[in-house]
Design goal:
Blueprint: H1 9-16, H2 20-27, H3 35-47, H4 54-62, E1 66-71, H5 77-92, E2 96-101, H6 106-118, E3 123-127, H7 134-149, E4 153-157, E5 166-170, H8 172-185, E6 191-195, H9 201-216, E7 226-228, H10 233-246, E8 252-255, H11 258-270, E9 280-282, E10 299-301, H12 304-316, E11 326-329, E12 332-334
Parallel strand pairs: 1-2, 1-3, 3-4, 4-5, 5-11, 6-7, 6-8, 8-9
Antiparallel strand pairs: 10-12
Helix pairs in contact: 1-2, 1-3, 2-3, 5-12, 6-7, 8-9, 10-11
Length: 343
């Protein structure tokens, strides 16, 4: 076998009679290659005077120093803030972060997990709501189980009912209940709720907590009072526009996320209505921008960066018993000028 100038990995694989992937694993020293195949690959590499690409080797070595972060939408300030907390801790541990947005597509989330498994990421973090979807639960579990058995680390932020992994759990239900009590104390009894897709566990928990607290106070929340739309600013605008078109019959609008509340306020203003003089508006999350709005938004404040910090700390902390660790983080109602006493 004559050496070729600038022999490639494909040349080595062909000479050894193996796939390029097997050749790569053999040259990188992984134990997942049978000894006789490794010997063939190493012999072929020697005869071809193959020199691995330095950059490719550096990337391969970095795989074990990479944390994969999968969120719904990194352009959403909620996820940006949580991801910021993850990146700060990752930097302290000399880890690289790969960030992916699923845009709330369950299949895309599973695909990203599969990709990170293949790239041997040191940890996988899922930020954001799980899905009320049995097919997604099974598919995601099938990807994560072998990854965990192989030594991978997984942590999630928010409720993922079927995943037995370390969890940072914002108190969504309790926070929404506390918001309902605060709005009831302001004298409100007629509400409109702007909700995201009900297949998201975060939406189910926030709507459920708000509704249950109203029920305890003897205030009914009818199905028509809950308007479902995209979990975005534009979704909030569209939902509020729908309510205004059919006739607003509420003194207070509760949006289950701040970005939806921002869209709702814009829709009200476009119709010539004033917040809170004509209707109060409240949100959930306390993303940084809401305190600078006119008027500033009443919301349930979550420690967003701390959610991310705690998630990666869980993933990087040894858990010999492999028992699920759940770290709960409470929200706090912050009353600002977007809400006023009911007339």
């Amino acid at each position: 076998m004559q050496p070729r100038p600038h022999s490639t990995l494909e040349d080595v694989a062909k000479a050894a009679g193996v796939s390029p992937a097997t050749a790569s694993r053999a040259l990188n020293g992984t134990t997942q290659v049978r000894p006789h195949l490794r010997e063939r690959v190493l012999k072929a590499a020697e005869e071809l005077a193959y020199t691995p690409n330095a950059h490719a080797r550096a990337l391969a070595g970095a795989a074990h120093r990479t944390v994969g972060v999968i969120c719904h939408d990194v352009s959403d300030p909620y996820f940006a803030a949580v991801a910021g907390g993850i990146m700060r801790v990752a930097s302290d541990h000399d880890l690289l972060v790969t960030l992916a947005s699923t845009f709330r597509d369950p299949e895309r989330e599973v695909a990203y997990v599969s990709m990170l498994r293949a790239e041997r990421a040191a940890a996988i973090l899922l930020i954001g709501s799980g899905f009320e979807n049995p097919d997604w639960e099974r598919a995601l579990g099938a990807e994560l189980e072998p990854y965990l058995k192989g030594g991978g680390r997984v942590a999630v932020v928010s409720r993922h009912r079927s995943l037995r992994v370390d969890t940072v759990l914002p108190e969504n239900r309790a926070g929404a209940g506390a918001m309902a009590r605060a709005l009831l104390d302001l004298g409100h009894r007629r509400f409109t709720v702007l909700a995201g897709p009900r297949t998201l566990t975060t939406v189910a928990d926030r709507v459920g907590g708000f509704r249950d607290e109203l029920r305890r106070a003897g205030v009914a929340l009818r199905p028509a009072d809950i308007v479902e739309s995209a979990f975005t600013r534009d979704g909030g605008y569209a939902a509020m526009t729908e309510v205004l078109t059919r006739g607003l019959d509420a003194t207070c609008v509760f949006a289950v996320t701040d970005v939806m509340a921002i869209g709702a306020v814009a829709a009200l203003r476009d119709r010539g209505l004033s917040v809170p003089a004509d209707v109060s508006v409240a949100g959930f999350d306390d993303i940084p921008i809401v305190r600078d709005l006119t008027p500033p938004l009443t919301t349930v404040a979550l420690p967003l960066q701390q959610l991310g910090e705690r998630a990666i700390e869980l993933a990087l902390t040894e858990n010999p018993g492999r028992r699920r660790r759940i770290h709960r983080m409470a929200g706090e109602v912050v009353i600002r000028a977007s809400t006023a006493k009911a007339l």
